[in-house]
Amino acid sequence: MSNAQASPVVVLTGGLGSGKSTAAHCFVGLGITVIDADAIVHELTGPDGAALASLRLLLGDDCMSPSAGLDRARVRQAVFADPRLRKRLEAILHPMVQVVARQRLEQAMGPYCLYVVPLWAETRGGQPRPDWVWKVVVVDIDQTRQRSRVLKRTPMPNETLEGMLAAQANRHERLELADHVINNNSDEASLLAQVQSLHAELLQCLNKLPMEVSPQSKPLTDRP
User: Fold this and answer.
1) How far apart (Å, rounded) are the C-alpha atoms in residues 15 and 146?
2) Is 213's pLDDT higher than 50?
3) What pTM did the predictor assign?
4) Angle CA(193)–CA(150)–CA(178) in degrees, nearest 5?
5) Phi, then psi, of 132 in degrees rounded to 5
6) How far apart are CA 98 and CA 92, in angstroms?
7) What distance in Å separates the CA atoms of residue 133 and residue 36, rounded to the nearest whole number?
8) pLDDT at residue 54 in the model
9) Is the terminal CB of the chain with fewer CB neighbours within 10 Å at N or C?
10) Cβ-count burial of 208 within 10 angstroms (0-12 exposed, 13-18 middle, 19+ buried)?
């Protein structure tokens, strides 16, 4: 696939429990290709995942599940209690995720593609936006709803949750990077309506761009 044919990349990000996956599913329903960094992590750390051997050396057998690969609950507690361990874990996983994501972004078809990156603000904050990114969309949620949704989905001790939230960028840091914001403080119907409206706006923007400055023409060599 030539560089000129590559779909423009829209990054979708948001904090823990903000509703990124639900928003991404809405884009899928509109025919948009979605590449999800978290889903790639699950592939790499699942049964026979490419990252398991390195992670076993780092974390030990106690963090491995015979049937499911990495025991995510155990790892979650371990890494958020030890920031240095978390950084070593990220040093293994992030480059592997980037390789897979790059391949899938280069193969993406359609008017644009969506790259879901939970830690976009954490890894890109304070740096110039990469040339391969066309737009950044943030799914925003207030902190009370955020905590409630996370605990409903994945029950855990409060101190574990607070450690996970403290390790992430805050709302202000995340919103500073946004071209567009999806407010997820209501119900799924509201979320879907916002995604549909944004989709129409993005298509309109693409139609207005002359070919020589269209994001399709940007090189893929610096993609994640």
Assistant:
1) 8
2) no
3) 0.88
4) 50
5) -80, -5
6) 11
7) 15
8) 95
9) N
10) exposed
pLDDT band at 224 (very low <50, low <70, confident <90, very high): low
Q: How many residues does the chain have?
A: 224
Instruction: Write out the chain in H/E/C secondary structure.
Output: CCHHHCCCEEEEEECCCCCHHHHHHHHHHCCCEEEEHHHHHHHHHCCCCCCHHHHHHHHCHHHEECCCEECHHHHHHHHHHCHHHHHHHHHHHHHHHHHHHHHHHHHCCCCCEEEECCCHHHHHCCCCCCCCEEEEEEEECCHHHHHHHHHHHCCCCHHHHHHHHHCCCCHHHHHCCCCEEEECCCCHHHHHHHHHHHHHHHHHHHHHCCHHHCHHHCCCCCCC
Residues 6+ apart with CB under 8 A from 163: 80, 81
CA distance 160 to 166: 10
Q: Is the pLDDT of residue 217 over 70?
A: no
Q: For residue 2, name the pLDDT band (cuts at 50, 70, 90).
A: very low
If 0-12 CB within 10 Å is exposed, 13-18 middle and 19+ buried, where does residue 134 land?
Answer: buried
Name the phi and psi angles at 92, rounded to 5.
-80, -50
